[in-house]
Structures are given as C-alpha cells and as structure tokens.
Specification:
Largest sheet: 5 strands, mixed
Number of helices: 6
Number of strands: 7
Helix content: 40-55%
Distance between the termini: 65 Å
Strand order of the largest sheet: 2-4-5-7-6
Order of helices and strands: HHEHHEEHEEHEE
C-alpha cells in the first residue's frame, strides 16, 4: 500500500507540474500574439502617418517642376526631378509596408471585376516604358490569342505584374531582355486557369533561395553594399495577392541564367470568393 501511495503522489506532482507548464505556455503564446498584433498596428499607423507628408513633398516638387511657382534653371530642374523620383520610391515602399500590415491582420479583400490580361499587361508595360528605355532593355510581350476574360481584382493583378516586371528590369544588366507571356494554364479542381510568366536575362537566383525570396523582409543579398534596395516585401505581397485568388506563384532560375516568375489565376468567375 505504501508503494501505491507513493506512486500516486508522484503522479499527482507530475500532473500538477504539467498543468503549470501548460498554463505558462498558454500565457506566453497569448503575449506573443499580442506583441504581433501591436507590431502590425504600429506598422499600419506609421505607414499611414508617413504617407501624408511624403505625398505633400512630391506634390510640391511637381509644382516646382511644372513651373507653377516660376521658372527653374537646368540644375534646379534636375534636382527637383531627383526629389520626385526619390519621393515616389519612398511612397511605394510605404505602401508595401501598409499592404503587408493589412495582410498580416487579414484585412485584405478582393474587389473583383471583369477585365482582359491584354489590358493589364499593356498598362503595366506602359508604366515601365521609361525605365526599360533607360536600362536599354528589350521588352517583349507574348499573349496567347483567345484567352478568357478574367473575373478578379484588377488592381491586385496589376500590382503583381508591376512588381515582377520591375524586379526583372532592375536585376537585369543594361542591354538585357525582359518579357511577359500569358497562356492557358493547367486545369485544376477549380477548373481552367491562365498562366503568366515574367522573365529576364538577368543575374538569376540560386535554387536554394527560390523559397526565401517570397518571405517577408527577405533579401538574398542582405549586405549594406548590395546594389538593389527595398523593403523585402514585394514578392511576399505578390504571393499573398495571387493566393487570395486561389492561384499559385513560383520561380524558375539559376545564377547567371536569368529568372522566370510564373503565376496562375483560375478562370472560374468565383475563383476569388
């Protein structure tokens, strides 16, 4: 009987210890979740607060550029152009952080409409035309005839294409080639799909980094001397937007062999529901 009593006491002490550990673990998890929520709210607040003065800076610089406040000398015009370019880039980065914060808080929704890929691709190429010319790249577009009209969030698809094309231009040495192609994709459980590819003849990405580039704040080259800068959120946001449409995004690339980003979108009009 004494042995049975001892075993019972030991069991009860161990059970109490496990219960205490479980309580402490639950408390730690709750604290971590609260910290995550606070971080997300901070990112959203600071992004919103930064956007207003940055927009004012860009707007006033554009007024100076357009001569509304008087003529500028050549050197002054060049300086103002630099302010506008830098200000717009900062606004893009702030918008990326704000979008990331909304995604983390599950506040991203789809505003679906009907549109064709041709129109979106034409829009994105037009916005990047000056940068393509500056880098002396050859930009080609190849769209399979007869692709169906999509029922999706046009702005988010344009954002994905713009991010991928911008990266292709940025990471390709001058005189390279970048392209966008669109064709019928595989048939999935949701029905037919379209597949879009954005490729380049640039520096490429090692296979071991293919998944890393889609992670938040990821930088394949994180050294201070790297030639390309940004928030590290662009591809993470692109993946989030594609997955909101029940599509998928992936990368084919190797160092020195360029990169080809692919993403699919279901054709079904309820694909984004």
């Amino acid at each position: 009987m004494a042995r049975a009593y001892t075993d019972s006491s030991t069991f009860e002490r161990r059970l109490e210890s496990l219960q205490e550990q479980n309580t402490n673990l639950a408390r730690t998890i709750a604290e971590l979740r609260n910290q995550g929520a606070l971080k997300t709210q901070f990112l959203a607040n600071i992004s919103h607060d930064l956007r207003t003065p940055l927009t004012a800076v860009v707007t006033h610089a554009e007024m100076l550029r357009d001569g509304i406040l008087g003529p500028l000398s050549g050197r002054q015009a060049e300086s103002i152009a630099g302010i506008i370019t830098g200000g717009r880039r900062l606004l893009e980065m702030v918008d990326e952080i704000l979008t990331y914060a909304r995604g983390t808080a599950n506040q991203l929704t789809l505003a679906n409409s009907e549109f064709t890929l041709d129109d979106v691709i034409e829009q994105v190429c037009g916005l990047n035309e000056a940068l393509v010319a500056k880098r002396k790249h050859a930009l080609t577009v190849d769209i399979e005839p007869g692709l169906p009209v999509l029922h999706a969030d046009r702005d988010k698809i344009a954002h994905v294409l713009g991010n991928l094309l911008g990266n292709a231009i940025d990471f390709t040495p001058p005189g390279g080639r970048v392209w966008i192609s669109a064709r019928s994709g595989p048939t999935t459980s949701r029905g037919p799909s379209v597949e879009i590819e954005v490729g380049d003849t640039g520096i490429g990405i090692a296979p071991e980094h293919h998944e890393l580039v889609f992670h938040e704040f990821a930088q394949v080259d994180a050294s201070p001397s790297r030639g390309h800068h940004g928030t590290g959120l662009g591809l993470a946001i692109a993946r989030r937007f594609v997955e909101l449409h029940n599509g998928r995004i992936w990368l084919d690339s190797a160092l020195g062999a360029g990169s080809r980003f692919h993403f699919t979108l279901p054709v079904d009009e309820h694909s984004g529901a």
